[in-house]
């Protein structure tokens, strides 16, 4: 099968990745040891599914209307309620995308799936604990043994570029789309995440849900390309039904849920930061080993430079983990699908029934400002020097020893609740976490 081009997980706001900050390092560094992204081992959900298919232990049924999409979602544990719809032409299948035929996107904690009406392929991006984002395509032609084909070079033009600060990954971008779905790039774009102002989000997306007086760029198109910034945000506000905009029966659900979009904007940044830290730490470990050998020092010796590099990688993860600079909502937000309920039901729960997946949706996205991705394989796979630093810093913040200004938004109640939840639900914490506050 030929390479079909860049796998853009979210387009219109475009899913791509974030971020390796390594001075004087070229983009291709992750293609060489110790990362070896292109040839190194990986063990992501699609890789494991393909092994089961090849062994005859799993199969994918083909649907006359949606092709392999329903089977892919079911096999990879991706909820249909996570559906989001993008109508901007920012995917390699852009000729098949328009406001009348938006692209559908779905996600779980470590899988992203894209589908286009009458598209050639189902697009899948997964998160490998060590290597970060891995991109695949699956032909939409019925066969006895479907095969996911890994996509590399063409995808990495976008998904391993300056947009992603140098590592394979994802980002969300908001554009000014015209009536055909083409972005008006001279108007600029916004890369958005969980900290972004509401009014910069979701240009080129459909958005279903209520959000009070807050306004966003979703559901609307540019009426005058000479003045693309003059968007009628009122026309796209508090939309709960998309039936008048396109044929919703052509999709698995009629929703493009606002809560799913907001959770996605946090999740991809958290994944990005963990991949960045993973890459940085492995490269730092390599450099430290070379220097220690050259200077005949103990193998475990950490120079000031090495410690600073570990500290920097850990701090970026910690800030995202604790949702530093999170958006404060002016009015409550409510979605139109069952996404919020299903997301919260996944736990894990502490002895009081609390969970880091609990949503607030009144003042903030999450009830407890600590990411549920602390339970992810990507977090657990972080190399020891950076993972130990993150957990130590997190402990100091939660018990109140660390009173840094950037964590001042955490109330005493927040800190205590997060501490108790993690003690109950994360089994591999260091022994000092069991101590008295």
Describe how the helices and strands are arranged.
Elements: H1 45-54, H2 69-75, E1 84-86, E2 103-107, E3 111-115, E4 121-128, E5 132-139, E6 148-151, H3 153-159, E7 172-174, E8 190-192, E9 205-206, E10 209-210, H4 258-294, H5 304-321, E11 334-335, H6 339-345, H7 377-380, H8 384-399, H9 412-425
Antiparallel strand pairs: 1-2, 1-9, 2-3, 3-4, 4-5, 5-6, 7-8, 10-11
Describe the structure.
The protein is an alpha+beta fold and 437 residues long. It folds into two domains: 27-258, no CATH class; 275-434, no CATH class. The chain is built from nine helices and eleven strands. It has helices at residues 45-54, 69-75, 153-159, 258-294, 304-321, 339-345, 377-380, 384-399, 412-425; strands at residues 84-86, 103-107, 111-115, 121-128, 132-139, 148-151, 172-174, 190-192, 205-206, 209-210, 334-335.
Order of helices and strands: HHEEEEEEHEEEEHHEHHHH
Work out the count of structural domains: 2
In terms of per-residue confidence, which ranges show pLDDT below 50 for 5 or more consecutive residues? 1-27
Radius of gyration: 22 Å
Could you estimate the helical fraction of the residues in percent?
A: 25-40%
- Largest beta sheet, briefly? 7 strands, antiparallel
Mean pLDDT: 91
Number of helices: 9
- The count of DSSP E runs of length 2 or more, i.e. the number of strands, is 11
Specify the structural class. Answer: alpha+beta
What would the principal axes of the Cα set say about the shape?
globular
Residues in β-strands, percent? 5-15%
Distance between the termini: 58 Å
The largest sheet has its strands arranged as 6-5-4-3-2-1-9
């Amino acid at each position: 099968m030929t390479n079909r081009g860049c796998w853009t997980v979210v387009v219109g706001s475009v899913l791509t990745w974030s971020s390796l900050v390594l001075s004087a390092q070229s983009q291709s560094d992750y293609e060489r040891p110790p990362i070896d992204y292109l040839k190194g081992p990986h063990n992501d959900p699609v890789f494991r599914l393909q092994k089961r298919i090849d062994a005859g232990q799993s199969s994918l049924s083909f649907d006359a209307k949606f092709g392999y999409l329903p089977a892919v979602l079911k096999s990879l544990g991706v909820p249909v309620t996570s559906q989001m719809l993008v109508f901007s032409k920012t995917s390699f299948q852009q000729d098949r995308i328009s406001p009348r035929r938006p692209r559908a996107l779905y996600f779980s904690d470590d899988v992203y799936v894209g589908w286009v009406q009458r598209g050639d392929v189902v697009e899948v991006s997964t998160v490998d604990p060590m290597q970060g984002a891995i991109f695949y395509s699956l032909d939409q032609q019925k066969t006895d043994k479907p095969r996911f084909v890994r996509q590399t070079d063409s995808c990495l033009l976008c998904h391993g570029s300056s947009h992603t600060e140098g590592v394979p990954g994802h980002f969300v971008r908001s554009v000014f789309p015209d009536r055909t779905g083409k972005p008006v790039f001279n108007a600029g774009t916004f890369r958005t995440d969980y900290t972004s102002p509401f009014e910069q989000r979701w240009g080129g997306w459909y958005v279903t849900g209520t959000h009070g007086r807050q306004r966003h760029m979703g559901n609307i198109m540019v009426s005058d390309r000479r003045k693309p910034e003059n968007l009628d945000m009122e026309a796209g506000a508090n939309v709960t039904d998309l039936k008048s905009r396109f044929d919703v029966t052509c999709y698995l659900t009629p929703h493009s849920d606002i809560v799913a979009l907001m959770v996605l904007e946090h999740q991809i940044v958290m994944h990005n930061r963990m991949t960045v830290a993973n890459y940085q730490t492995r490269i730092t470990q390599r450099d430290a080993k070379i220097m220690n050998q050259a200077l005949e020092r103990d193998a475990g010796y950490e120079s000031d430079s090495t410690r600073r590099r570990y500290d920097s990688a850990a701090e970026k993860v910690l800030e995202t983990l604790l949702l530093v600079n999170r958006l404060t909502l002016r009015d409550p937000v409510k979605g139109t699908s069952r996404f919020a309920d299903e997301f919260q039901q996944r736990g894990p729960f502490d002895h009081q029934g609390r969970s880091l997946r609990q949503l607030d949706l009144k003042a903030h996205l999450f009830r407890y400002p600590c990411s549920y991705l602390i339970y992810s394989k990507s977090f657990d796979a972080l190399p020891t020097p950076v993972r130990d630093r993150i957990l130590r810093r997190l402990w100091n913040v939660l018990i109140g020893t660390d009173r840094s200004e950037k964590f001042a938004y955490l109330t005493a109640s927040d800190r205590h609740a997060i501490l108790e939840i993690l003690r109950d639900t994360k089994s591999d914490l260091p022994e000092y976490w069991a101590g008295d506050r």
